[in-house]
């Protein structure tokens, strides 16, 4: 007996599962840095968030939706990793699990599961935690490289936290403010490599860029969203810096601190919650860049990447309706 | 050298051109041939023979019914034993003329000498008449009667003839081998088409994964004024008519229009060879080159010269000793081929290849939810959004289909191939086209 089917009879080797596996691989350099800098207190958080997300998804599929669990597409693992990366080392397990629940149950599965969610699950989970537990979410352990078992909760501020704090309280002259900055701020090399305080996965720009290169090499994402996002943000930050007489922290500090790279490379590029046309993706990225700038400079929050991406997520259906690729043999309307 | 290509979408598939160095061999004569009376787009041909008639190779079996139809000739000598509806490759019952093969006698008019005849002595009208009498249709797969394509409609003009030697499908090497072994005949065929169309030049488009054919054609083209070779990127679907015209001339066939609207005529390399044989050697289209291939299921893949109507099983027996291992038989390539319902299905003028898949490879992967990666839209060579077409059909928003340009789909299958969730997007596009046609009829 011959089997029959419609064409085509071959498939690209890339499947949903292989894509997710590649994203996980791309996240590994940041994982290694996190282990080196924060030790077991980071490992604990990541294991909790991954396990939490996978188990919640499995249970909801099996007992609530009565469908074949989608665990093997590995998307819950990616969500878990990203959520963990967005938390400070040593974050309490029970709060972490609440974040997992918000990410998977409310943000993803309530909308219908993979491909149906409007907002990025990991970011929604993080923002929920940030609003609910502001203390714990901003308690950053100081980096202690290669001291794996150190669970000592000696904490310090993040780079952006320092900037915000200075911005708020200092009434000294602009010049002196800039001087103070320089004393407290970590140097660029530490920021680039990851020897700074911050969320588990965001500290090392180098590790995140390595992941980005891997994703580009494997053709998982295109360069458009990260590049347009960061470029927009940097242009605005530089203009701001020049207009304020070059007295505030240099744009480079803004670039290398906070979750900018983690957010632009791994979360703004999430297929489900970003536009489907190239033009749309560029608009989305520019919107994210502007919002990140506005939130970082004019709101009470030191960091704006999560909020910016979530806000732009809400615009995706609209952008998708507006940006339609040109059909061959037609003129653009 | 810079290769030409189309700018929008397209995919790079694993080509599996395992037979590209295998010279064309004669497949031999089966016991019976099954000749369908419809091997083209348009009306089925009118049957002229009866049960018991003795025929020779090249005898006219059925006459074209109207302009959009084609003559059918006997591919063997022998006796007509049956004329009845038989299950065709696509599972539909199709009227076929069954001939029991006896000996191998040819109609006297056919010039069977190996000489290449270079002088084109026939007039424009005579050429078109000869093409019509020889039952030539577009052999790239569409099966559009060639006489119509060699007659420029009133009010239109043509300035470019493109000979399509792209063969971008996986596994197929029939046109490749034909261009290597019969380069000069194809060039003369192009000159004949030039004369019929009243165009001065022809461009032979070959993709870069056929270095032997490119070299052969380029060196021969120096001797023929007005025939040139264009090397195209090895990208799928480079051989699709609209994509090829875009790559070669930069012109874009407007939505819903034909190549002639941008002054281009595209003929397949195999068709061009058939035109040469018809015009110069008086040989009707009763045989063609077919690649029989497959990775594990075909032990000795080959390029065969096959008589029209030869059952697939006759060819399959020659490439594998273990037909039990075969799980799927595909007429055509891996991207656009039709999966045959049984191995007895006859080959036709349009069969460019027979691809054999093992039982394991025959299974299609299960589909899952769309993850909105947009690959289907990014890689669509027509700039369509297959995901939106699928959504419109799922939600029964059939009025949306027109606005999504569903009718512009060329059915290349890039969307289904690339989809990581394995959604059968091409099936949705085809279904969408059927729905639009229904709406238009109302």
Query: Which residues of chain A sit in consecutive blocks of at least 5 with pLDDT less than 50?
Result: 168-180
Class from helix and strand fractions of chain A: mainly alpha
Strand content of chain A: under 5%
H-E string of chain A = HHHHHHEEHHHHHHHHH
Explain what you see.
The complex is a heterodimer of chains A (333) and B (442). By secondary structure, chain A is mainly α. Chain A contains 15 helices and 2 strands. In chain A, strands 1-2 form a two-stranded antiparallel ribbon. In chain A, helix 1 (16-38) packs antiparallel against helix 10 (205-217). The longest helix of chain A is centred in the first third of the chain and has 26 residues, at 40-65. Chain B is α/β, with parallel strands linked by helices and 442 residues long. In chain B, 28% of the residues lie in helices and 19% in strands. Chain B has a 6-stranded mixed beta sheet, with helices on both faces. Chain B has a 4-stranded antiparallel beta sheet with strand order 2-8-7-4, with no helix packed on it. In chain B, helix 3 (174-181) runs parallel beside helix 5 and helix 11 crosses helix 14. Chain B is globular and about 65 Å long. The mean pLDDT of chain B is 93. The chains are: A mainly alpha (333), B alpha/beta (442). Chains A and B meet through helix 1 of A and strand 15, strand 16, helix 13 and helix 14 of B.
Short descriptors:
heterodimer, A: 333 residues, mainly alpha, two-stranded antiparallel sheet, 2 strands, globular, B: 442 residues, alpha/beta, six-stranded mixed β-sheet, four-stranded antiparallel β-sheet, 14 helices, 28% helix
Summarize the structure.
The complex is a heterodimer of chains A (333) and B (442). Chain A has 15 helices and two strands.
What is this structure's SSE topology?
The complex is a heterodimer of chains A (about 325) and B (about 450).
Chain A: H1 16-38, H2 40-65, H3 75-85, H4 93-108, H5 121-132, H6 134-137, E1 140-141, E2 155-156, H7 159-169, H8 174-184, H9 188-193, H10 205-217, H11 224-243, H12 251-256, H13 260-267, H14 278-298, H15 305-322
Antiparallel strand pairs in A: 1-2
Chain B: E1 25-26, E2 32-36, E3 46-47, E4 54-55, E5 60-63, E6 72-73, E7 78-87, E8 93-101, H1 124-133, H2 146-149, E9 160-165, H3 174-181, H4 183-197, E10 202-207, H5 211-221, E11 227-232, H6 241-249, E12 264-268, H7 269-281, E13 287-293, E14 302-307, H8 312-319, E15 326-331, E16 338-339, E17 353-358, H9 359-362, H10 375-379, H11 386-394, H12 400-403, H13 414-418, H14 425-441
Parallel strand pairs in B: 1-14, 9-10, 9-12, 10-11, 13-17
Antiparallel strand pairs in B: 2-8, 3-5, 4-7, 5-6, 7-8, 13-14, 15-16, 15-17
